[in-house]
Amino acid sequence: MIQQVTQGIKISVKTEYGGALKKDDVFQHAFAYTISIENQSKDTVQLLSRHWRIKDSLNHPKVVQGEGVIGVKPILLPGEKHSYSSGCLLDSPIGAMRGHYNLINFATAQNLKVSIPLFNLCAPFAMN
C-alpha cells in the first residue's frame, strides 16, 4: 500500500491487476485501485475535484480531470475517511498513476491541493 499525507489529508492507495482484454483488435490491461482519503486535520474538508496523470510503459500519457470522485464530493469531518474503488485500462502491462485532489477547508475557506502519490500498475506476469 502506498501512503502520503499532505496538509493533514492522508491518501492511501491499493492496486490490483484485473487481466487483459481485447478491444478493437488491441489488447488492453485492466487495473483496479482503491483509494482512502482520511482527514487527519482538525477542520472539516470537502473534496471538490480530481486530476490524474496516467502513463503506460509504451509512453501513452493520459490526463483525467473531473469533479468529485465516482460521482460524489465527500465531506470529511476530522478523523473521517472516505474510500472508493475505480480503475483504468492501459495499452501495456506496466504503468503508473499520480495526481492530486482539490479540497476546500470549511473553517478557513482555503483551497487545498492534496497530492496523490505515484503508484505503479504492474501485471504480475510482467514483474521479473
Automatic annotation (TrEMBL):
Gene3D superfamilies: ApaG domain. PROSITE patterns: APAG. It comes from the Bacteria. It holds the Pfam family DUF525. Residues 3-128 form the ApaG domain. GO terms for biological process: error-free translesion synthesis. PANTHER family: F-BOX ONLY PROTEIN 3, POLYMERASE DELTA-INTERACTING PROTEIN 2. NCBIfam families: PRK05461.1. This is Co2+/Mg2+ efflux protein ApaG. It comes from Aequorivita ciconiae.
